[in-house]
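Hi W.,

Here's what went into the run:
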Amino acid sequence: MSVQDPHSNDKLRQKFEATVKLFGWCSLILLVLLAIAPAKNFFADWRRYQRGYERLISKRSDAFTLRRHFEPGIQQIWLPEMNVVDRCTTCHSAMKETTLADVSIQPYRPHPPIPHKLEEFGCVMCHRGQGTATSVEDAHKSTLAWEEPLLPAKYLESSCGQCHEQDLKGTPQLNLGRKLLRSYGCVHCHTIKRRDGTVIAATDDPPSLAHIADKTSREWVFAWLKDPQAYSSTSTMPNFKFSDNDARDVSAFLISSSTPASLKIVQASLDTAKKVGADAELQTEASSLYGESFCASCHAVQNAAGNLVGGNVGPELTKVGSKVKPEWLQAWVRNPHDYDLETAMPHYRFNDQEVGELTGFLLAKTDSDLLANVHLDPATPEQIEHGKRLVNDYGCASCHEINGIKRPENFAPELTKIGSKPVNQLAFAPGVPHTLYDYIGAKIKQPRAFGASLKMPQFTFTTAQIDALANELLSHNERALAIPANKTVPAPMPSHYEPAGKAGQLITDLNCFSCHAINGRGGDMAPDLTWEGSSVQRDWLVQFFRNPNTLRPALIRRMPKFNLTDAEINTLTDYILAVYQSPKVDRDSMPLGGYPTAQVELGRQLYYSKYGCQSCHIIDTKQDKGYIGPSLTHVGSRLTAAWVYNWLKDPAALRSGTQEPKRNMSDDDAHALTAFLMSQKGSEKQEAKKR
Amino acid sequence: MNRTVLEMVVNFGGAALKRCDHGENRDWALAPGVTLLASAVLLMFSLGCSNNVAANYSLPKPTAYGAAIVESSGGKQVAEVGTPLPQPIVVQVNDEQSNGVAGALVTLRGPNGVYIEPAAGLTDSSGQFTSNISLGTIPGRYQLTATTTTKAGKPVDLKIEAIALGYQEQVGSQLNDQYCARCHNQESTPERVSNYDNLEVKPHPFTEGDTLNKMTDADLVAIISHGGPALNKSPLMSPYGYTLSKSEIQALIAYIRMVSDPPYSAPGIVYAQK
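Here's what came out:
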């Protein structure tokens, strides 16, 4: 054994030790590195929340049941056809535990009751956010990799709108948004397609400007363009923020492009109208004619206190005298269809005197301030040319018919997928938080804040209306378009019902559909008339057309008197009784010879004691006070027995949405009540005495 | 505390690693160093500033002080969760003689999730302070506190309540409008005249907690489904069991429970005694 050099041995050892040390360090670092992954897993948010949940339920009285329901580990709801992969229930463990309803700390709050099952729709369908994430930040917030944050509660109803295209009871915000989108005419410029490819249609009816010079002055058009709400606070026309010069030129073009309408001008009416201002007696007459014709059912007028009184079907009339020309107004009051075939205003059969009175009465409603500062010099050809360019640029013809301008197609960006537009494709105005819903809200609130050159006009929406509109817009997104058809509830098909023949012409002329619905078409201000023929007796209907008295004492809006001729009334009555018949109501099933007194008496007892009908209806005007349903004092001469009987059996089957509850009455009870009600004939003399 | 810091450290380490993976030209071995360094920094940071979170808003300086604070309008409003109350809340600061004090400082506070705009400010010339409120995302009662300070520096509080409706209560509220409110709500408007005064036997308004809270859910289901006679009450209350679905009746009850005053508290689970 040779003796080795102690130095070289030391060196070797040192080298060896250095290597070992290096190896040791490397291993240590590797170990630490390796430990990171399991440690990260061990300290993951969801484990902490699950431990917290176990602690929470251990203190509850039903801990055993809760623990049995609880499944530890990552949970997932996978719905391939809906494109849902949700792991939210990993931390939100108590989603279905109704006994934890008092817990308000997240993530342990159970889901409030809704009509849908978690396993059927998952979470992100409604709440958005990232379903696959297992950390709090990734799942809820907008991060670099994922820009779809949770929807705040006020926009949650938009998610209902992804599948439900009809209005729902539980979604007032969405319903309002849908209504606004259509009634403010957003969809005139922005196309929004539904799942089935149909386009959402506007419900407003912007007036045609083809004959505008006949209707109003250039000065009024100028003032209107500058600030529509200064003329009428309820106007849905937005403010385009025109400069004085631009408004001057647009008004010049609109007036110059106008062609004369064929208006029937009656000098006698114009003369009467002129007299109304000076003649107090004529004024009272005109005012009561305005009241009797129930103009206020559709038109509002500002009262002395500054409150609007009246309906919102037609335009506000507070300052109408500063707007329209007398010749136009008298022609319009005589027959609005002469000027506008599509108008919702009925053709009242006023005589020339009445036309004159109403014209004078309305012309007196002026506002001297409105046009006080408007002085326009005659338009030059350059101004008119510039006006035309502006009308084209701002897409005026998207809403209004204008001579010489074609309606532009897709004037503004299509909004079919606005609810899923990536945030990185949006240009935000300064100060707007970088989320889609904040963008939509801010854009509606003040479009020009996003750039002074933008064309979108300024609307007058309240904050609540903007939120509602944002709800509706968010519901139009890619996810909604991809939802399988069997999961969606399409909107009811729009009805294109047209009544036929001579009566059909009358119904169109009187615009019955403005207030009444028949076969799914028409307004909801007045009763649905789909089964009216089964419901009423002929004599009553004739009388009602002659003099429509309301059946409901507490109602402000009433059926106007149209001054129909006897022939017209006969045509309408015959048609209604022949055509608007319900297959459920069989007139022949009722006894022909009337009802025995005993049955009538039984009915009276049932009416007052068992069924308590007097809580809503009036039969005896002295003791009954019910104000909700129609008065029944004359019901025996108004309704048919078959209708009354079937109505008592199931009111909603004859008129859906009625307030009257179904009572599940026995046939005997229903017959007895019918007998009692049909005995309430009333008498004209008594009624006359009361008046 | 220690655990959260540790988690943050670990999480951050993970994040750093991930970031290194993504960076193309970086050496992955840097990760542990970065992790360690970051951990140390984070540790110190989190220990150092754990108590500095409370934000300091700059409040306007009051020019006057009141003695009392009262509600002018806007209390007890009902709105859907997350949406603004229909009317703003208006409070008034008064002096000893109950006259409005202008320029007094009012602050409004509410539970988490309530959005108050503005949350603090000076009263106007009539001594009033107006604020718009959006309720949080959890259905239930929200108590808001309006505070002003007296000259002596003593805070005076006013509690204001608002109610947020969840989905179910919202459906109930719509049903209430359609079927119940005409009789059960005394408030009469020209658009909708109340029938309350016309009834011989007066219905209970849904806010009348003293009576309605004593009724169990089963009682309410019975009287709504089968009418007054089901509980030996007046037949003027009609049965709605064939008009409303079961879930609609549940929604209506949820609404009634939500708006009752004093508040309703559920009885909880009752187990059979041994």
